[in-house]
Amino acid sequence: MNTEDFRPEKKATVFYPPQRVLMGPGPSDTHARVLNAMARPTLGHLDPVFTEMMEEIKGLMRYAFQTKNRMTFPVSGPGSVGMEMCFVNMIEPGDKVIVCRNGVFGGRMIENVERHGGVAVVVDDKWGEPVDPQKVEDALKKNPDAKIVAFVHAETSTGAQSDAKTLCEIARKYNCLTIVDTVTSLGGTPILVDEWGIDAIYSGSQKCLSCPPGLSPVSFSDRVTELVKNRKTKVHSWFMDISLLLNYWGSSARTYHHTAPTNALYGLHESLLMIYEEGLEHSWARHRYNYEALKAGFATLGMNYVVKEEHRLPQLNSVFVPAGVDEKEVRRRLLDEYNLEIGAGLGDFAGKVWRFGLMGTSCRVENVIFCLNALETILSDMGAKVERGTAAAAAHKSYAAKPMF
């Protein structure tokens, strides 16, 4: 055998990624502290020093989620794995699940229900609007045998935030468990797991936590762990079976389950520590503070929001593309000329909206001003009727009117 026959067609070289400013729907910029943490020496995943850090991660995650749930830990995989972990553990064949869909990720919940043998009862709301609690209650009245209510707290495809507290109250009224997607909300807007009575929740490391993609924080109530223990059938995924993971993440005497991504967990530990040091309330306020300034700048550029003010996520800003503007060309020029990444629309909004992220480390005053100046320049060059200098000025006026520090 000649190994040279299998050489890649293009010569492989050391990869040096460009330095971007990430202001799309995720990932966000990774803080230098997190990158430095990930570069530290690798330990074995059962090393006693590493397991001490695992305990710290669990405590920091409980703080971020505002919960005392024992089963609070990061899944080795992105937010989509966190989503699947919830559904695969909680659904048995034939179980009926009320699934709320007001964007792309509610649709993915439906897919999970059906793939795991459940029956999805879909509650639809218009893209850009929150989940309607009355529709959910009506669905529960019509389906008294429903077992779970699943919804997206922060819909990344639109920037809409639903009322998780009310939806969980309704679910409990009808003796249903809840599954809540907080991939885009954790760290950026309030999430109170215990106070709201959330049973199963998942998020992602790459948004408001400003850690690279690849880990999914999850938390399960005692009601869920009891449900899993009393299942009639085995969980259809060995890797995601929380009854097995209890022996790794839930026990002080660690039993081998899988080789955890140690260096990635160093990074998550550091990012959670940074949230703790800043304080959750301060982090929520910082995201709101920079959103208000970005919003003021957008208004001068004729960019209108998809979501009404009262339902809008400060960390995920979806705006309609101004009439006559080539949305792809604007995104291309922002990336090529300014190393600035923003997001395109998904699904029904493809080609119609831009999505601007203000998440974690990316949520900074200098990023807001930089983004507005770049947008203003490009739109002006493309013939849009914008007055140069007004966008950044409007943002500065917003900052001055409501000083945060």
TrEMBL record:
Q: Summarize where substrate binds, as residue positions.
A: 355
Question: N6-(pyridoxal phosphate)lysine (modified residue): where?
Answer: 207
Offer an example of a GO molecular function term for this protein: L-serine-pyruvate transaminase activity
Q: Which CDD domains match?
A: AGAT_like
Key word Transferase present: yes
Q: Which InterPro entries match?
A: Aminotrans_V_dom, Aminotrans_V_PyrdxlP_BS, PyrdxlP-dep_Trfase, PyrdxlP-dep_Trfase_major, PyrdxlP-dep_Trfase_small, SP_NH2Trfase/AEP_transaminase
What cofactors are annotated for this protein?
A: pyridoxal 5'-phosphate
State the UniProt keywords alphabetically. Aminotransferase, Pyridoxal phosphate, Transferase
* Gene Ontology BP annotations: glycine biosynthetic process, by transamination of glyoxylate
Q: Does the keyword Transferase apply?
A: yes
Show where the Aminotransferase class V domain sits. 42-345
Report the sequence similarity comment from the record. Belongs to the class-V pyridoxal-phosphate-dependent aminotransferase family.
Q: PANTHER family attached here?
A: ALANINE--GLYOXYLATE AMINOTRANSFERASE, AMINOTRANSFERASE CLASS V
Q: How is this protein named in the record?
A: Alanine-glyoxylate aminotransferase apoenzyme
Name the source organism: Nitrosomonas oligotropha
